[in-house]
Amino acid sequence: MTMCKRTSKSSRYFDVMFCAGFGFGFCLCFMAITYYKLVTDKFQNSLVLLQSQTSSLSVANTAVFSPLSPSPISSGRLLCWVLTSPNTLWTRSKHIVKTWGRRCDTLLFLSSKPDLKFPGTVLALETEEGRENLYNKTINAFKILHDSYLDKADWFLKADDDTYVIVENLRLLLSRFSPNRPVYLGRRFRQHVHQGYMSGGAGYVLSREAVRLYAMAVYNGTCTLSTSPEDLELGTCLQKLGVPAGDSRDHQNRETFHPLWLGSLVSPEDLLPKWFHNYNYYTTKVGPDCCSKTSVSFHYCKPLQMYMLEYFLYRLSPVGGHSIKLHKTRGETTATETNKSNNQLTSFWGFDKGFIWNPL
Ligand SMILES: *[C@@H]1O[C@H](CO)[C@@H](O)[C@H](O)[C@H]1NC(C)=O
Ligand SMILES: *[C@@H]1O[C@H](CO)[C@@H](O)[C@H](O)[C@H]1NC(C)=O
Ligand SMILES: *[C@@H]1O[C@H](CO)[C@@H](O)[C@H](O)[C@H]1NC(C)=O
C-alpha cells in the first residue's frame, strides 16, 4: 500500500478515495467467491444424493443424466450411416436427424443423389435406386467409409431410414468388443451362411478392422457385386474374410437388434411370421422375453413412432424407474472379446451402489 503514502495535498483526496474503492472492491470479490463456493458445494451434494437415491422425479435429474451428454461408456467413436434414397430423405431421414441420429459421433446419409438443403450430411453414391441395387449401394458406401472415414471412427453402424437406434445401448454392447479386431454385430440370421449373417433392417455394426478388410476385398475382387439381398451378400463376404459374426444378445440371452416392429415382438401371443422363426440364429422368444432391457434397434419405425420412442425412452418414467444391472455381462468369450472391464462403467453410473436407473 505504498501508493497511499503520497505527500502531495492535491492528490491526497484522490488517493483516499482510490484506497477506499480498492478495499470495497476486494470485500465484494471475497463475498462473491464465498457465495459461489457455497452454491457449488450444495450442487455437488445434491449430485451425490441423486446417485445414491433410488428414484427421483426432480427436474435437476434431467440435466445430470441427459441422454445427449457425452456417453460415459468407453466404446470408441461411433459413425452411423443411414442407407436412404432421394424419395425418403425428407419424409424419413429428416426425423433421424432430429431423434436418435444426434447421439452418434458422426451421422451420414447415403443416397443416390446429393442434397445440399438437407439438415444433415448426404453423400451421393451415384448408383441406381431400387431393391436390386441395394448391394451396390452398400458396396459403394463402404468404399466411401473406408477411403474417407476409416481413421475418424471405431465403429460403423448401418441403419435403414426406418430403423430406430438406442445409441447408448449400442455403445454398451460395443464396449465388450475391440474395434481393432474384425467383428460384425446385429440380429443374427442363420439361413444361407454358415456362421449366420446380420439382418439389414435391424441395422448392423462393423468394427473398423472389419470395414478395412471388407473394403480391401471389394477393391481386390475377392467379393463382387451381386443382385441377391444386400445383408446376405455382405454376410457371405464377411464369412469368406474370416470376420466373425458376433453374439449381440444380453446376459439373459435376449436379443438386442430387432428386424420387426416392437408391437409384434412383445405380444404374448405368437404373431410373428413363420420365416422369422426359421431365420433367427438363436431360438426366437415371444412376449416380454423377446427383447433385451438394453435393446439397440427396432426396424419398421415410422417417423411418428420415432418421436414416441424418444418420449418413452428419454422423458417418460414410471415412478420408481427400472432397475438395470449393467455389471452382469454375457459369460461367453468370443475371439474378439476384449478384457475391457465393465467396472468402470458400473461405477460411473453408480449401479454398483444399487442405483436404480431413471432414464427420463
Ligand atoms: C454400381 O455402382 C457403380 C458406381 O457407384 C456404377 O458405376 C455401376 O454401374 C453400378 N453397377 C450396377 C450393376 O448397377
Ligand atoms: C483381398 O483382400 C482380402 C482382405 O480384405 C485378403 O484376405 C485377400 O487375400 C486379398 N486378395 C488378393 C488377391 O489380394
Ligand atoms: C482381465 O483383467 C483382470 C483384472 O482387471 C485380470 O485379472 C485378468 O487376468 C485379465 N484377463 C485377461 C485374459 O487378460
From TrEMBL:
<comment type="pathway">
    <text>Protein modification; protein glycosylation.</text>
</comment>
<dbReference type="InterPro" id="IPR026050">
    <property type="entry name" value="C1GALT1/C1GALT1_chp1"/>
</dbReference>
<keyword id="KW-0472">Membrane</keyword>
<dbReference type="InterPro" id="IPR003378">
    <property type="entry name" value="Fringe-like_glycosylTrfase"/>
</dbReference>
<feature type="domain" description="Fringe-like glycosyltransferase">
    <location>
        <begin position="91"/>
        <end position="258"/>
    </location>
</feature>
<protein>
    <recommendedName>
        <fullName>N-acetylgalactosaminide beta-1,3-galactosyltransferase</fullName>
        <ecNumber>2.4.1.122</ecNumber>
    </recommendedName>
</protein>
<keyword id="KW-0735">Signal-anchor</keyword>
<keyword id="KW-0547">Nucleotide-binding</keyword>
<dbReference type="GO" id="GO:0000166">
    <property type="term" value="F:nucleotide binding"/>
</dbReference>
<keyword id="KW-1133">Transmembrane helix</keyword>
<feature type="transmembrane region" description="Helical">
    <location>
        <begin position="12"/>
        <end position="36"/>
    </location>
</feature>
<keyword id="KW-0812">Transmembrane</keyword>
<dbReference type="Pfam" id="PF02434">
    <property type="entry name" value="Fringe"/>
</dbReference>
<keyword id="KW-0808">Transferase</keyword>
<dbReference type="GO" id="GO:0016263">
    <property type="term" value="F:glycoprotein-N-acetylgalactosamine 3-beta-galactosyltransferase activity"/>
</dbReference>
<dbReference type="GO" id="GO:0016020">
    <property type="term" value="C:membrane"/>
</dbReference>
<keyword id="KW-0328">Glycosyltransferase</keyword>
<comment type="similarity">
    <text>Belongs to the glycosyltransferase 31 family. Beta3-Gal-T subfamily.</text>
</comment>
